[in-house]
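Data availability excerpt. The first of two example chains:
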Amino acid sequence: MGFYWEYIEKKMSFEEITQERKKQLKRISTIRNNRDIIVYAADYSKGQAPISILYEDLAPFNDQLSNLNGKAVDLILETPGGSGEVAEDIVKTLRNKYDNVSVIIPGWAKSAGTIIAMASDDILMDTTSALGPIDAQLTWQGKTFSADALLKGFEKIKREVDEKQFLNQAYIPILQGISPGELESAQNSLDFAKDLVRDWLISYKFKDWNVHSSTGEEVTSEEKRVRANEIATELCNHEKWKTHGKSLRIKDLEEMGLKINNYEDNNDLNDAISRYKALLNMSFDTNIFKVIETSDTQIYRHLNSEAPPQSDNDVLFAGIECGKCKYKNNIQINLDTAKPVKKGFKTISKDKSIICEQCSTNINLEGFINDVQAQTRKNVIL
């Protein structure tokens, strides 16, 4: 029986799920010689939410990191990717604080998540885990696509013009919509990701690679540089991987020349990480779409609320956006004891929902309530 089903059968409350998550994080830390542990995880299934690595995640990430005081850290990472610049900031923050950084991938860490993994001393995965290509993504005319694909597309047009000595009229609208500056920006984005990965591999992943396992001969600085450049180039090879969402598993990464630790080889560690992954998925079954946490504290981001609830003693005020009409409904959340309802606000009904004032849609707030109770450690009065 799988862990997910085991926990479902127990019919655990959100608070119990949270406590069990913390228990498994502490287990992982103990098994890993009491290293600090921090989680940055997003729910892939909530694509309508800002699940990518974003600038606004830096403050909560740094907040959680400030609760830790060790010399080595494990980052549990689950992300579809996002901003390469923010990924760089996360890495610099971790590296400024810790002598040793490992990244644990229970599921997927794609794109900018892969960039972060390449800055670690050690990468831990299992046979189902995956990293991904690191080709930069650009948004143009409302569409997101690979910077590499854009540049190769324009190279194809250029070659066709050189060969046929005329321009296909179908290309004119495309060429009119892209400036030389945007092409240069696409190239810069590609170079940025590739250079980061190459430099980080040399500085961290390969810092203790001193002897060739096959020959026993010393590894030179030039050999480290060449290997790092080959791996960075391979990870940026959109022409090979075809899709930005391609899953690169342990075998794929080892074929590139990366050493990956399969945590399935350690039964206790595999059990703890697998249980944490199941509990994380159950936490995402609510309105929560992003979890940033340590073994003692946590910060959630959830759907519907436009901003963190504002507190007035044991009363919280929040703006809940209707998913249908986007109207913001102002609600009052009473904690532990009932309070008079402030003018202009409404309370949550006993079935854990509100009715949108504008379109009368029923908005389920069970996940939001669980989030509030987990963070405040108080009961929401319905």
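And the second chain:
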Amino acid sequence: MADEFAKGLGLLTGAGLIWMVLAGWYKTPSFSGAQLTGAPPSDLSMLGEAALILTESMFWLAIFGAALFWVGVPLGRQLYAGIGSE
């Protein structure tokens, strides 16, 4: 059980860190306005567009990765144990 917690925490912190860095670079227009959630600039290069896609991907990986290892895997093991004992 601790192994799943560590994997979920690793995904949450790793992907969350990458999301925060990229969102700080691309979605923080000023420090007096919206930070990390502002509108990205419209005149980005192909690398900037790829970074925005990676930003969104890391956000959802952090959310669903942690949920998978903290809820999904233990639930699957419980279901498998219940089916295997019958």
